[in-house]
Amino acid sequence: MNRVAALPMYNVSPSLAADWHALLADVLRRVEPAAVIVEPHDLHAFWRRPDLLLAQTCGYPYVLGLHEYVQLIATPHFDAPGCEGANYSSVIVTRSDAPFDSIEASRGARAAFNSTDSNSGYNALRHSVAPFARDGGFFASTLETGSHLGSLRAVAEDRADVAAIDCVTMAFARDAYPELTGRLRGIGTTRKTPGLPLIASKHVSHKQADALRAALNEALHAQPERAQRLKLKGFSHLTADDYDSIRQMENEARIANYARLA
Fold first, then answer.
1. 17-59 pLDDT per residue, tens
2. Is the CATH number 3.30.230.10 carried by domain 4-78+195-244?
3. Which CATH class is domain 87-193+247-255?
4. What is the side-by-side strand order in the sheet with 198-201?
5. Whole-structure pTM over 0.70, yes or no?
6. Residue 119 and residue 45: Cα distance in Å, rounded?
7. For the chain, domain boundaries
8. Cα Rg for the chain, rounded, in angstroms?
9. Which residue blocks in 135-230 are alpha helix, DSSP H?
């Protein structure tokens, strides 16, 4: 059976999706040419496949249980505001004409988030709001949008007032959708944590995992213009312990009696 791979996390635009696909194809040619690039519909099931050769996940699902099924291959370094090495943050956005200029001042506003299993859109926003919450509440309402682009549109279209957006996605969105992002402004940033890791099944050998890391760097440097479009600068090989800071943010919010975004 051929192994499978996919890099769907930062497909913010069709052209970016094509570049990620091309990068992945270059990596696979160097490591396992028979591997198949797929379009996963259920990411949680896809990440747990024993035949997974390479994919990208969010750090929050990783610490909540995915780590039992996968190994860390690499964490990208992105050239985007809010990134520092392998770490990233979220920018908290509102409409340009909104009446508040900080997360604390947005009490009683409407929050949008991409999904409850997102570190950048949910866990990080909850952590930022927790010090200001009262009796487990802060916002007037919350809206799950399904994606960071969906959250940006919800805020821009006045269906929500604030959202936390992965700073890498935000940088891509500024390039691809300037009319949308031009209607928004930032009012804060979240704590930095390790970025979205590239993973492989634990059934992938250590030798092949090392080959994937080498191939990622080779593919990065082989096409510098593509790397620039993808805002890729390099990779780090982090450990599971490095991602504990994501769980720590969740714990700090719970200690503050703010277990869910509300």
1. 999 999 999 999 999 999 999 999 999 999 999 999 999 999 9
2. no
3. alpha beta
4. 36-37, 4-5, 52-56, 198-201, 70-78, 232-236
5. yes
6. 18
7. 4-78+195-244, 87-193+247-255
8. 18
9. 148-156, 167-176, 178-181, 206-222, 224-229
